[in-house]
Design goal:
Helix content is about 35%, strand content about 15%. The protein is of the alpha+beta class and about 300 residues long.
Amino acid sequence: MDRRDFIKSCSLVMVAGLLFGCRKTVLDGLGAGEGNLRGPSLKAFEEEVRLAMSQARGRLDLVRVNAPGKMKSAGLLEGSNCNNRFGMAIDLDACDGCGKCILACNMENNVPLVNEDEAARGRFMHWIEMRGGVPFMCAHCGDAPCEKVCPTGAANHTPDGISAMMYKRCTGTRFCGANCPAKARKFNFLDAQKLGLARKFNKDVPLREKGVMEKCSLCLHRLQNDRLRFKTESLGEWRGRGVKTACSEGCPKNAIVFGNWLDSESPLVKATSGRQLYAPRELAELDPSVVFIMGKR
């Protein structure tokens, strides 16, 4: 074999090795991805919701509040003029505490299961939980105390009134959770993907890693998709009309109404017109965007 053939042979061996290595890496990655996509059965998620509801404790001390208005400061730049503020109202005269909103939220947002130890402590990752038979989640406060103590800006507010999480920025200090008066945030103590406790029902929502905080996002991805549609189709001013959260869609009693507090045509404004609005006492002074309604229809 001459020098040229020798170099050619060595090159082929190296390329074959690289291709094999790349193929193995890609296949390993696909395998992991498929595992996450399959994940635990739907029945396992249903059973965990039932278990969480059976362990639910605590009640909501509700007090009257005014309807949310324009954001005063959080999330807004000086002089900005945002015409949207999204939120929800939970009709306690219609809600029967069935828990279907919890399951709908878990599937939409790829909320992972927990292991037996965490379940025994009542530390489920559910973004919605029952408190005294009432669905409870992050209230997306206009004056959110959780955001004020986040050292990385992972907990932040959008101009549309949503208290959002940037998971890649979260370093797991848990300051935000400690500063939430209602303890609405959940901390990932487990590597759910590694333990086989996660399932990616929805490709639009990323699976979260161990060591980050997570909570209700008001299905921000749905709003973002609708906003993009309006922009690409030049449909005019975007107000989020027609968008629903997973929990509102999943409620068989239509007890959860999502919408835009600043839009007179929003189903949220119409549903709350003439009704008494309430919020948990510890959040009432923080300008919550998620409220409860009772009384006169």
